[in-house]
UniProtKB/TrEMBL annotation:
Protein name: Gamma-glutamyltranspeptidase / glutathione hydrolase
UniProt-listed PANTHER family: GAMMA-GLUTAMYLTRANSPEPTIDASE (AFU_ORTHOLOGUE AFUA_4G13580)
Species this protein is from: Micromonospora rhizosphaerae
Chaperone recorded as keyword: no
Pfam families: G_glu_transpept
UniProt keyword list: Hydrolase
InterPro entries listed in its UniProt record: GGT-like_enzyme, GGT_lsub, GGT_ssub_C, Ntn_hydrolases_N
Keyword Transmembrane helix recorded: no
Single Gene Ontology MF annotation: hydrolase activity
Amino acid sequence: MAYPRQPLFAPNGAVATSQPLAAAAGLAVLRRGGNAVDAALAAAITLTVVQPPSNDIGGDLFAIVWDGERLHGLNASGRSPAALTREMVLAATERRGAEPVDALGGAQAAGPAMPARGWLPVTVPGAPAGWRDLHDRFGSLPFADLFADAIGYAEHGYPVAPGTAATWARGVAAHAALRGEEYVEFDPVFTVGGRAPRPGERWRNPDAAGTLRRIAATGAEDFYRGRIAVALDAHAARTGGLITGDDLARHTSTWVTPVSARYRGHEVWELPPNGQGVAALLALNILDGVDLAALPADERLHWQIEAMKLGFADAHAYVADPERAEVPTAALLDPGYAASRRALVTAWAGDPVAGEPERGGTVYLCTADAGGMMVSLIQSTYLAFGSHVVLPGHGFALQNRGTGFRLDPAHPNAVGPAKRPFHTIIPGFLTRDGEPVGPFGVMGGHMQPQGQLQLVSATLDAGRDPQAALDTPRWYWHAGRSVLVEPELAADHDLVAALQARGHQITVAEDPAAFGYGQAIWRHPDGGYVAGSESRVDGAMVGW
């Protein structure tokens, strides 16, 4: 397929999101005098209503903020319930045959895995607290003002976008196989007579409007210590959940220092674990020692795929909750370690394993304002509709991020109480010599570091603008030597044959959802910004 969209040039500010109504909500805030954080929050809150299969009030959030002078990172992911144990998961999985999911992209060891749906993978939602904490530190408009569009769409309805409708239909199809009292509320809230809403069909969620009003009025306090918390505690107790009011009351976001890797004279920034951003940085560190632009196309892609495999091998081995386990982030990102990993890449497709460093469904959006503040923000419930557990009378689904835990008790990411799991959602940011270039991200689970690598390479190796970089045909590695490619890449038969000769097992995937959806905003050298947004789905970028 062709992606004819052109980049957006804007003199004062820009918003790029995966859904046009959310982009418009962010732009409205900028035009009212709000800053980039205000705009990002308005867009993020609106996305919970207009793109609910991918993110919701019951999800998590991560953000990187350039305040005009330096970067700040917010980890607003939630922890597992205090009552959760490995033995409990094993017993429930054996008893109920709970649906497993390979959250770690083929890296799970043989044997039982965390369930994908129901109460067991539910962790404390971090997004409402994340909204509040970002606003408390950086916001300029009143917090409640940022909820106006989201509440309006939830109360009065909106026509569902085509890409969202497709994801919605997949989520509803998955829900049809689920049985249990915890799932009963899903159909009344998220289906139209048992089916997903069709493209253009108007959908309302008045219960979500009420929940958002309470979060807006109380600065999210009602969610963690008030009526919403009481309702969630009672619903869990009644239907077999582990999460309690105490779990909610103990939740805190964490301000963190972003970590980086050098690439082509730039710095690529991610948040440190428990997110998988280090996988992208590990791969870029490896590739920074290779002149990709001088290589034939097949060798260039081969290097990218093999570097990404090595990045994932280390991320899956070491990423965990740094408050509960030692995570050797600095050692993993050391240039000397990257050189040792680079030396492992041969002319043939490999099956990499983790190295030994020295010890010591998602939505993405980005915004920029006239004062130079820029935001990279990502939030998610994971998969389509997360756990599929919906709180009665409140209109939102709970995330299933606990799916990212391991059941191996010796693994640093082993399932357990009050822990943050391995997290797939990762915002990115690009600088050069300490000066901001801009925020970027690619949503899509295991695709996210791979999409980020390909976006950064298309920008810095091929010199493409944000839209052209996003539109560049993508590949996706999941496990082993299997690589999915978009039809545009597969149309180059010589390229495919050359990759196959190196041992890669190439499969063409027609579904654009397999390759992630991204956005990027770069600061323009002549002032203002240039933005791109995903052409494979309902993405939009707007500016003024």
